[in-house]
Design goal:
Protein name: ABC-2 type transport system permease protein
Order of helices and strands: HHHHHHHHHHHHHEEHHHHHHHHHHH
Keywords: Membrane, Transmembrane, Transmembrane helix
Transmembrane segments: 42-71, 77-99, 120-148, 154-180, 192-209, 292-309, 372-393, 399-420, 441-467, 473-495, 516-536, 542-565
Organism: Granulicella cerasi
Number of strands: 2
Helix content: over 70%
Largest sheet: 2 strands, antiparallel
Strand order of the largest sheet: 1-2
Number of helices: 24
Amino acid sequence: MAELTSAPWTAEQTKAQYLAIITLRWRIFRNMLGRKGGKSEALSWLFVGLLTLVIAAGLAAGIGIACAYAASEGKYGLVTSMMWGIFVLSQLININLGSPGTTFDPTQLIRFPLTVGRYALVRLFFGIISPGNVLVVVLSLAAAVGIIVGNAHLWLVALVGALLFAAVNLLFTRMVFAWVDRWLSTRRAREVFTALIFIASMSVQWLNVHYNMDRNHGRHHRHHATSTTPDSVELGMTHVTEPEKPSPTASRALLYWDKARPYFRLLPPGLMGDSVASSANGQPAKAVMEEAGIVLYGALFLAIFGLRMKAEFAGENLSDVANAVRTPKRVNTEQRVASRTVPSTTAVQGRPVGAIQAILGKEFLYLRRNMGILYGIVAPLVMVFLFAGRVTSNTSSEWVYPAALSYALLGIVPISYNAFGLDGTGTQFYFMAPVKMRDVLLAKNLLNAILAAIEMIAVIALIAYLIGAPSPVMLLSSVLWALATLAVEMTVGNYRSISSPKRIELQKTAQKQANGVSALISMGILLLSAAVGWSLMQLARFSGFGWLMPLILAALAVVAGFIYWQNLGKMDAYAFERRDALFEELGKKS
């Protein structure tokens, strides 16, 4: 990358280093497009990027209009609210989607003649172009444009403040991801962090639902408060009662917000809104100081990020193996002899019967350690609990059961599209051991089926508790639809697990369970299957024969199960032909 000489280091050499890293990234990306599956992966990125731009355009238009209204009417508290919305939205997107995976491990750069500062700068821009980061820049500029449209005299403070706010958000995201990766280097820390994320996200949903229920309850009472009574009609007047007081929950929320508001104004979103208000009120010095406060936050986030990069530059290893504290276990002689006399598997007609059980047990260990999968399993249950009762208050509950099962499968089906992601380089042992790939995938699919069964039973029981038991026809139809969909997803997922695997490292934050193309395929199959189920529901309704839907779905489930079983027998030859690419992909570090 650069020559080691006794001469002083020059700016041209630093420029050459950065140029070499950029060239390396471009060549790796170009070579990736040339390998098998690379073009489809690029198309998936393009699709997600276009979808993100469409969503960003809609949000930008709404934020721009709101800020234009705030600037024209002098309601600058609305600008602060928009800034907080941008900040929270970008962090939620970064948590759920994560930063894009790099094409090679950037810590390899410490072997080259880099200083800590140059290494930190390179690492700062690795993975900075994520959907959440792009969104915060676009929405911040949209807010600035809205403020300028509403009050053209504020163009300078609005534009500078928006750029500073976007830069601070980027630095905050990079700082958080760097330190979270450090904290998640141990399994216990991963469990605690995922539990906190789960509690926080579900608490937000609960507050939203509870607040809306209180608000609707208040509207209901206000509607009756202005209603007419027989006596009032006879008198020719309307009976008006006192407006109802806010609910205790809303009152407590407002009280807490009033106490916390002064502290929130000292944070970057509050400083951005206050700087615009100060400039509009003829206080330019105060506006400059408030935007300088945003700069100080950026410097603080950059310094904390630099501390993490300094530890990386010193060669810190965050792998589970490096951080594992091994203590020798004392095993007495009788236990050692007993363990030798118990066979690990039982052979029947030359086939290892215990292989499926052993792999299934290993998959349960992976499941216990992968908090991302557990989050995807538990979150749908909580969301069903929060929303099932509300959506059926004004509409028919006929479609709630199949819709809830469809939503529950969202956390299950991606697992089958990357069956070897957690095995990593250990996948090679499947090809060296006396076990068929058919049995390996069958054991992994059994775990998916068990999780799906648990999820389905929990969802059905939860909805039955909230809105009542379903009819036998709807219950049977929903279960048959889920079985047919799961069989199709696992059939396609087995092929994608071998042709397009993705290594999953538990110590990395917000990793997807499958690559982009596999995720789009699984979502497409689920949507197509949902469309088929909805069509059958409409067909049964118009025909007047209620049992038509479960009969057709039973036939589809049998066909899907037969196709799955037939393709399962082809996995040995399919995996053997692609074993080299499989090992190469699973051996990469993200």
